[in-house]
Amino acid sequence: MPGLDEPLKKTLGPATAKVLAEQLGLHTVGDLLHHYPRRYAERGELTSLAELHDQLDEHVTVVAQVADARVHTFNGGRGRRLEVTLTDGAGRLQLVFFGSGVHKPHKELLPGTRAMFAGKVGMFNRKLQLSHPAYALLGGGGDGDEAADRDAVDSFAGQLLPIYPACGKLESWKISKAVDAVLPSAGDAVDPLPPALREGRGMLPLPEALEKIHRPRTKADIAQARDRLKWDEAFVLQVALARRRFADSQLPAVPRRPAPGGLLDAFDAKLPFTLTDGQRTVSREIFDDLATEHPMHRLLQGEVGSGKTLVALRAMLAVVDSGGQAAMLAPTEVLAQQHHRSVTEMMGELAEGGMLGGSDLGTKVVLLTGSMGVAARRQALLDLVTGEAGIVIGTHALIEDKVQFHDLGLVVVDEQHRFGVEQRDALRSKGKQPPHLLVMTATPIPRTVAMTVFGDLETSVLDQLPAGRSPIATHVVPAKDKPHFLTRAWERVREEVESGHQAYVVCPRIGDGEDEPKNGRKKVASPEDEAEKRPPLAVLEVAEQLAAGPLAGLAVEVLHGRMDPADKDDVMRRFAAGQVHVLVATTVIEVGVNVPNSTAMVIMDADRFGVSQLHQLRGRVGRGSAPGLCLLVSEMPEASPARARLAAVAATLDGFELSRIDLEQRREGDVLGQAQSGVRSSLRMLAVIEDEEIIAQAREEATRVVRADPELAGLPGLRTALDALLDTERERYLEKG
User: Fold this and answer.
1) Do residues 94 and 117 make contact, with C-beta atoms less than 8 angstroms apart?
2) Whole-angstrom Cα distance, residue 453 to residue 332?
3) Do the Cβ atoms of 182 and 33 come closer than 8 Å?
């Protein structure tokens, strides 16, 4: 009997093993045992065909009954085409076979015959279609490509038919046959759950769970196996994160407490508004962490415009009060410059420490970016190494070797997901002892994603908007169905400008001949996707058309990521000063840009952006006393999934609700991000939205286990599972803190 680490080619042969490795990433017996069925078809119960509309261009497996089969001739009788219609009583699907491939299915696929069919879903004459699908008759029969023998067919004629995630070269029933060959090895599976935990929660032993997930006799078997396997995934991942938190808690750090009557008190005294209850609560959590002798590792997430920058600034001022320095790392020069502007404006004379007219309690706030002039850069570096500058705000330029600090006490990372592990670690290593870390994200994250993606960080949430923030009305503009709506949209922009306000127009790409379409989804051969056959609208083209057409006479300018940094800064300064009426931009304005006089935003090709991204963009308007307006322009048909997404954004301003919708519509891998792709393969059964309770319980159990035995010396099975999880890429995932 092969062990779980044995290569599949020894058990299944080189040809099958090669396809499993190349197409599905399965290399060992253990990999195949953890390739679980996607769903199960019941004998006597036909599979729904209605779901196939959402699976165009994908490989699928269906169980259905032949309703009709007809042979058509063409080319004067020389060509033959077999058309087979399948039904499940609610939906219909067409199969088509040509040429020499007609003969066998014509004999076997008679009306009333029930079978499993596998192929790529296409659309022809507005009908769903599988062209030359492979098939296996249920209750005895064959396979369209002669590759599955009668044993395989009989195995599918059981009570519950497992349907596996498959690929073009390997149908579900062939994978099932391969699983049969390795299933006896399930008895060798090492159980990662501590026995007390498994028994206390009444869960199946791992070998039994693997047996039942692949060859269930009842639906109860499936439910029991899924519960157990979800727990494995959640628990092993949470143990990895708990060990990271434990290791961080053992590191030394300098406690940072604000001085009474110092810089923080002076700043609070000059604020023209009172902090929200949420800001006060989160600040208290942060100050408590800063006062300890171990580094803070905290995630600050919140709604668009909830005042995260103010909370982070107060934390930085507390560290400066204690004699330390604080660094804020921003992902783009536009955002770094915006943060520097807003921080120095909020601090006033307190940001001019040591300068003429500056406050005695003040400190210097310096900007450090890659495009700065030599003299300004040299002065900024000098201010940091001498300690003259208590606060520095910058981009990746902060990470360079020549950047040295006098006493780095706090690192604030804005838009955490945009930075790699090495970049964050390089900045943190510049402290004499590990500095405290505050991670900010402007994208609201569901609790389960926070526990999974940011599971090594404590989480603070700001979900209360400051007083004075205006409501934002959001509407979908169907440009193709109702072109007069788009005409009205430009009239509304002109009206806002004539009222003394400003507007943004956002496009998916730049349009300078070098850039590729962004945020576009994979094209599929569907009549509904005609709108996506053209390239996404571009900043340079749209700006030119607007300036010459519906917005003629207004000051229209562009902003995008490939502009010279000095030009970008100049455009943003003039826009902030009200000299530019309409800014046509890419998503470079997505986060951090704060121009309270901007009241309108038109997002072109809005269906090409994600739900959370649209919410971020919308957050750039309504930041002052005047109400905001966001118009989502799309050429997609009203009944399309893309329009449903836009309708969801228009229906609510609740970013946390939208983040759940966003996650439900995407694979977890999209949410975890490319840097976390190593973890994606470990989440085969766990769904981060649906399984919130399991993840929360697993986190508690993992914390308890790690606290009692940090090295897991008494839990060899868990240690083995952890080693399997922590390959190079997954180690990088865990370096988030």
Assistant:
1) no
2) 23
3) yes
Output the CA torsion sign for 205, 211, 217, 220.
Answer: positive
C-alpha–C-alpha distance, residues 694 and 680, integer Å: 18
Residue 464 has pLDDT above 80, yes or no: no
510-522 burial, b at 16+ Cβ within 10 Å, e below that, comes to bbeeebeeeebee
Cβ neighbours around 467 below 10 Å, total: 8
Give the tens place of pLDDT for each residue, 247-268. Answer: 888 889 999 999 899 999 999 9
| Separation of alpha carbons 8 and 21, rounded Å | 9
Strands (E), 206-362: 297-302, 325-329
| Residue 351 DSSP SS3 | helix
Residue 173 · residue 148 · CB < 8 Å? yes
C-alpha 332/C-alpha 309 separation (Å) is: 16
Q: How far apart are CA 239 and CA 724, in angstroms?
A: 13
Residue 592 φ/ψ region, left for φ over 0, alpha for ψ in the -120 to 50 degree band, beta for the rest: left
Q: Which tokens hold the place of 411? A: 């690192």
Give the span between the Cα atoms of 440 and 282, in whole angstroms: 12
Q: What is the DSSP letter of 320?
A: H
Q: Give the span between the Cα atoms of 716 and 434, in whole angstroms.
A: 32
* Helix pair angle (692-708, 219-249), 10° resolution: 50
pLDDT for residue 174 is more than 70: yes
Rounded Cα gap, residues 312 and 462, in angstroms: 12
d(CA 208, CA 187) in angstroms, rounded, equals: 8
What gap in Å lies between CA 487 and CA 506, rounded to an integer? 17
Is residue 80 very low, low, confident or very high in pLDDT (cuts 50, 70, 90)? confident
Give me the mean pLDDT over the 594-623 stretch: 89
Report residue 129: phi and psi, to 5°.
Answer: -150, 145
Q: What is the sign, positive or negative, of the torsion defined by CA atoms of 97, 102, 107, 111?
A: positive
For helices 219-249 and 716-725, the axis angle rounded to 10 degrees is 80
Predicted pLDDT at 682: 54
Give the range among 433-447, 526-540, 579-593 with minimum mean pLDDT. 526-540
pLDDT bin (cut points 50, 70, 90) of residue 434 is confident
Paired with 167 in beta bridges are: 170
Single-letter amino acid, residue 377:
R
CA angle 496, 500, 506 (to 5 degrees): 45
The conformational region for residue 171 under phi > 0 = left, psi -120 to 50 = alpha, else beta, is beta
Q: In this predicted structure, what is the pLDDT of residue 344?
A: 92
Domains along the sequence of the chain with CATH? 8-189 (2.40.50.140), 190-324+407-468+688-737 (3.40.50), 472-652 (3.40.50.300)
Does the CA dihedral 223-227-229-233 come out positive or negative?
A: positive
Q: For residue 341, what are its two tokens?
A: 């502007």
Residue 301 pLDDT more than 50?
yes
Contact 459, 441 (CB under 8 A): no
What digits encode the pLDDT tens for the residues 644-654? Answer: 889 999 998 88
The secondary structure of 67-78 as a DSSP string is EEEEEEEETTTT
Residues 191 and 503: their CA atoms lie apart, in Å, by 59
Task: Tell me the C-alpha to C-alpha distance, in Å, between residue 649 and each of 132, 445, 613.
Answer: 41, 16, 10
Burial grade of 214 (CB within 10 A; 0-12, 13-18, 19 or more): buried
Residue 40 burial (C-beta neighbours within 10 Å; 0-12, 13-18, 19+):
middle
